[in-house]
Write a structure and sequence with these properties.
five-stranded mixed sheet, 2 domains, mainly alpha, about 525 residues, globular, 25 helices
Length: about 525
Amino acid sequence: MAPTARDEAVNRDGGPGRPGAAVHPRAPAAPRTGPLPPLALLPVAVLACATAALLLLTADRFGYFSDELYFLVAGRHPAWGYADQPPLLPLLAHAIDTASNGSLVWLRAPAAAATALGVLTAALIARELGGRRPAQLATAGAYAVSPVMLQMGHLLITATLDIFLTTLTTWLLVRWVRTRQDRLLVLIGLTAALSLQIKFLSAAFWAVLLVAVVLAGPRDLLRRPLLWVSAAGALLTAVPGLLWQARNDWPQLAMTKVISQEVAAEEGGQARFLPTVLTTAGLVGAVLLCYGLWRLLAAREVRPYRFLGLTFAGLCAVYLAVHGRPYYVAGLFAVLWAAAATGLQRLRPTRPRAWAAVVPYVASAALAVQLLPIYPVQRLAEPKGDGLAKESVGWPDLAASVARVYRELPADKRRRALLITDRYDQAGALDRYGPALGLPRPYSGHRGYWYLRRPADDTAPVVFVGGDARYLRQFFTSVRKRGTVTNRHDVRNLNWGAPIWVCEGERRPWRTLWPRFSHLNADSASDSSKP
């Protein structure tokens, strides 16, 4: 019997046991669809540029985020790894800071660029799924007005780049499923390598993705030698960081436990995980997210991409079980939005209804933009002020508060005095603003900061920020409170009211005392673990 047209298409697909697989086991499969719809490049580019412009215009409105201050210091201590993340972002932050002479706008420019590129990539995903111009704009628009995308795009932190790289990976995977062009697997391997140098947690995405492909296909992906070569290359780049972790007793694993405890105790735990996922997606994004997930899991026309719906569901289940943070799954939002938008384009709304669909996007944008510092800083003094923004103000005031206590020390003691802080962000602020006030470089036992440097073995007075007298008397014979941290804006953030102590008489040499300062929780007195 002569093969039918359907048989010809199946044979070209190269599945197991099929004629195409037997004759051409390594030949790239022909595209499964006709020509792609035209890319809505101009409107999507305008939307991406507008997003970047908004982020850059608000980049230096308040101040540094705590992680950014830490990255700037960690980058001055180059290493193959750090206690709480791989090396790429600290090194990048330090390089930008050095080249830009301390510009906060330039420091955050990569975050704005990554978010803008995410808008474009979201439209490309919709196009790969067959989305015409309206579907591409709907997907790109959902990305641009998503609260999590704007909030992360405002900061240079690991989540910002991780979300973009995951979005980029989903586009490459969707394109590979459609075209079977194996050179895309090399690009996927490169994104994996970059992800592993930015955030160890990205390994969870690849693990769940592998399970999803085994369960739902395309299993042909797993038979591509170039996939495994690329995966091996990505893993090879992570070896130095893993060796650093092994030499230091795996502090990243200890940090994972601490984050789980913080989420359970302070962020609502499992009960708030899924509602927060929807909230971070935005008003429009939440609706598209649910519909897109349903389509990827149940709709026949997008069955080849079902593994991505399973990956999202699987990651939600994993992070729900281990008390992960909701934004950990945000990198998969774009493919779900694209699946929803391409499904809705079949409705063919009339022009008035199409314009009416813009209204939810405008409302979503109005809500999401409130997460950016577009309002007066005095608003943060209100009890209901944005918690994340509150922690971005007051760093120069913290340094000024410590400098007042430091200057009150007798001259002979001041020359030898040490600065130690209870939290890593306090140390980062003193490192950034302290030298201009005549302060020495600080130390901290908090998280990754403890690994950067330790005091020399000589007796010297210590100006300590945070903690309490009972905790400090474990280490010093004399503990006296000499000041309190405030800020000019009267913002009650974590640093407000932190005590400043003058401590003398170390009970042991620093080489034996310093390991006892190591702590992972925000309050040293609440954590006795030593990674």
